[in-house]
Amino acid sequence: MAEDDIPEETAPEGPKTAPEGPTRAGLAAVLGAPNAGKSTLVNRLAGAKVSIVSNKPQTTRFRIRAILTEGRSQVVLTDTPGIFSPRRRLDRAMVAAAWGGAQDADLAMLVVDARAGLTDPLRAIVAKLAKGSPPLWLVLNKTDLFDTKRLLPLTAELNGLLQFAETFMISAETGDGVDRLRTQLCEAMPVGPWLFPEDELSDVTDRMLAAEIVREQILRQTHEEVPHHATVETESWQERKDGSVRIDCTIYVGRSSQKAILIGDKGSRIREIGQRARVELTKLLERPVHLFLNVKDRPGWDEERGRLRALGLEDLE
Ligand SMILES: Nc1nc2c(ncn2[C@@H]2O[C@H](COP(=O)(O)OP(=O)(O)OP(=O)(O)O)[C@@H](O)[C@H]2O)c(=O)[nH]1
Ligand SMILES: [Mg+2]
User: Fold this and answer.
1) Total domain count for the chain?
2) Which residue windows does the record flag with biased composition (Acidic residues) (predicted)?
3) 274 and 293 in contact (C-beta within 8 Å)?
4) DSSP run (H or E) holding 144
5) pLDDT tens-place string over residues 259-286
């Protein structure tokens, strides 16, 4: 009798999460216009906060891998920056990172803010995807915001423009429809060995995570030009004997007026940003965090190779 054929009652105790069958693993890229809900979906699929989310477009700046391991399948999800018409060197590198995410992927999910419908940025993405990409799945998001009956014309229109192998209607925010998407993703992965250890959640380092969580608070607590002209770098990371960690981050902004807004009246804004980021990091890192923020104005940082290198974007334009 082959090992695979051991009857259930005599089978040795194995991990409950690994049903019989070969392992599967692959890469699934998540693409779309800014603000479509890509990062919200990636976090929901992975069951952990891996990528920051805000209501401002261009929140995600570089590719982030989140690892979804379920049953015998491992799906490496690539969250990408939203695709838009780039101007600055930073923007060009972000858009290049997004398209790069689709290369080598076993499948790509096009996430659409279904309430916004077929916008010009989405049309531009569709036109480029038509020139060749991995198998495509259409993910119509934000269904909690309207009656899904209204989705039929949009679904038909998009399916007329591109050949989607599957169409899903979901709310990444509430989780509605996401379980079916997760199950199908797991089943769609090619047979092969896992690419990451079972307990790995993402490829984001703790230093990068700290900088991103600070940037998330900047996106949430400031408006207009400040969020898009700010970048955050973790300067130092010191583990302390008492089990806590001291993290020093530098925030670069483009102008002294932006620095003034970020610092706020008697330092109130930067204190609030630090406070909330610290609470979030304490949760994510599972230990006490001492967070120190230093704001510097540095005109033209978004054209500087060194700053883009810190984001892992140096060779992408
Ligand atoms: N109501 C609702 N809001 C959503 C849903 N999914 C995402 N959002 C919100 O949409 C906004 C953008 O979400 P993100 O996940 O940051 O979008 P993104 O596509 O990653 O954006 P970029 O990184 O800028 O390209 C946030 O305010 C989310 O809370 C959804 O299903 N329903
Ligand atoms: Mg994002």
Assistant:
1) 2
2) 1-11
3) yes
4) none
5) 999 999 999 999 999 999 999 999 999 9
